[in-house]
Design a protein that fits this description.
single chain, 316 residues, alpha/beta, TIM Barrel, 8-stranded parallel beta sheet, 3-stranded antiparallel beta sheet, globular
Amino acid sequence: MIPPIVLAPLAGGPSTPELAAAVSNAGGLGFLGAGYLTAEELARRIARTRELTDEAIGVNLFVLTDTPVDDEALARYARELEPEARAYGVQLGDPRFDDDELAAKLEVVADAQVEFVSFAFGFLPAHDGWATVTSVDEAREAQARGASALVVQGTEAGGHRSTWDDSDDDTPLLTLLRAIGDVVDLPLVAAGGIATRDDVAAALDAGAVAAQVGTAFLLAPEAGTNDAHRRALASSGTTAVTRAFTGRKARGIVNRFMREHPDAPRAYPHVNNLTAPLRAAARGAGDENTINLWAGVNFAHTHARPAAETVAALRL
């Protein structure tokens, strides 16, 4: 059975064993984001989470495909970002493809007997797990490949759009839930802009069996959210979708970097690798104007409180 509140993976910093364990201990389902970690670090984090909870946990994995990119556009974007890097005294990274050590991480997850596994950006038919989908076509394909559940991600979600082909499909969550529920026979986990108990109720009314929530946990003391990101979440602002930081569409709080670099090429993880040293330096300096501030559209409802209190506030 899927618990009613599922922690979104929150890869890239906010995901911690402490946060995943706290959500599972509170009656939800805590997920670890495996993205950007080495396989060895993922194994360590799973082991640490097991020390903190006896409840079920989940791990989210990236499924990346090496598709052609516009090398000329990528080179232009690198030149555009060179002044940003010089200002921080760093070199831009190598804009290369990598598969995020998927094969090694699959072995780690299998060895650790993780109860729930979800996939972003694609789905592996040889592995029983949850597929993250953003369209009816992806939902049909995931069911045909043997997915056991679907995480239905609406355009309101913070962070990366989990489209399998990096398409521009931006369907709102409730519309997407109803459309997918009409064509597949799988449990649906709603994701995207869910910040209050009313949001959870609306998602369940639209056909979901559970709500996957990320932004609402970013200010929890158990989260690894950096200080600049925490300040932005606690301030007024708005969100928008950008490719500026990673080359893949993602929703975050609008800042200077997003406004000044609107023409990043469609190239993931190439742009992510390109900007990684710059973003690391900016995070170290506490500069919220030069880092990605992933957040869903309803981030204003985020509270600085223990994760267990957020689970209780969202449960019906």
